[in-house]
DNA sequence: ATTCATTTTATACTCATGGTACAACTTTTT
DNA sequence: AAAAAGTTGTACCATGAGTATAAAATGAAT
């Protein structure tokens, strides 16, 4: 059942890493995971959706591990930050995500682009906050600039290193090296008092991630509004998904797995209708809600 | 004749910028440039080769303009460097090359990858040398590291800025901002006396670009060696190309256009044979030889 | 102006791939 | 055992890269 889906994800991920996204055909995936085409399209609406699932899994994993590593540790410890970033990069590398990110970002469809961008900005936001943790409040005006520069340096270092050497250097070395540079950059910036893209980016992130701290109530409200907008002509399936989501959210202990399972069909069932955009937006909200709540669980349980 | 080829290049470049490489079909190119499929494949062996031609043109242009800008100027002037890099980025942006680079680098075929990588490392090499110009001999042990970090910072800044804002900020601002960071990074590095990837990269570049200063004599020598390795079973075409190249190189005034025209068929004619790798290597040598000589002409004429 | 070679076009084809449709089969649930 | 859900295999469509080739246009040489 759901095992099948994971089986497909594992197989296709392996192939994407080995051969790249474009160079992996559906047939390759079918052969590798020993399933039929019908089954594949039963779980994923397209090859892209399959990739999105893989990316999402990677980000999820990265988020979890980032959180885990900070638990009980000093947030000001630069070594912890280095390890956190290194883990992130390791996951990216292992899963060959950065290249896939980049390659999709410009040649792929808008939907994939949207997803990748969201994850990317999310990570930037995280690093900016961590930088404030470490370098103090006075670094706040420069934290986004510093985050951008840091990721830029790390990614390019990794890139070049991957090109020129075939051996497997520990990414943590690169990250530490780059953080060293940050030690030189940030004080100089603070002294000068200038900032660059930081301001715009912060505003942008605020606008695009304001729903990050989405509450259950807000979600129900949105879904109710959406539900009322549906007319008789709409698909029965869509109505049922909507109703189920509302019901699930109102339960005492929220059945996250059910919600997670329904979000995708909910979204796809409105594809091509006039509700498509709204449904997409709500689906994103729910994703963020689940993710946020997972993180909370981890934090609470420790 | 050759006009036709440029016509195709211009048209397909426009389309690649607008719609992306993957999203542009051959048919689109044919419609845009008002030629037939036959003609297209008369000039380019594939869509990839067409892209390679575009990229090569862009790099060529960037090289020329970089050179032009430095003529009669103080090599130590940081503003000149900023402008040079900005021009480079501008060309990249205008032609949408960075995204294409990235997207090809990982999902494209090995040949494209090779070409892109070569250009990339070439630019890195250039920047490293410019950094030594500006920051003096003592920066030499760190110049490659600094070049990597600089490109990383610039590209990521551009990337994020492109995502979050739709208006067209002057790239020179970003470059100047990043060079500011370099002012903080390099002295700290010099003081510490550490270097990182720099050493490896320098070695790698040396190995892979040692033929950058390839002489005519060296080329003829290589070709003769290659020619002697050919046996009767080999294709007649390949033999003729080889002989023609040797003959052309020995002429008083070297017929560059002829050589340029023959390199590609020369290379492809040995595809799939046991000489493929060697032919590829020689083809690359010749490319570099032509490029180097073009640059020299420009330098001499000023 | 005629001839001959090259270039260009138009058209029709092959092949690979993403995606759809569906009837038959298997497994799980009840 | 029966119904429901999941799975398979097969056949199909559309698109797009690349090949093949005969006919038409172009252009230079005699």
From TrEMBL, chains A, B:
Residue ranges flagged as DNA-binding region: 25-44
Keywords for this protein: DNA-binding
GO molecular function, one term: DNA binding
Residue ranges the record marks as coiled coil: none
InterPro entries in alphabetical order: DNA-bd_HTH_TetR-type_CS, Homeodomain-like_sf, HTH-type_Tx_Regulator, HTH_TetR
Alphabetical list of PANTHER family matching this protein: ACREF/ENVCD OPERON REPRESSOR-RELATED, TRANSCRIPTIONAL REGULATOR, TETR FAMILY
Protein name, entry field: HTH tetR-type domain-containing protein
Organism of provenance: Viridibacillus arvi
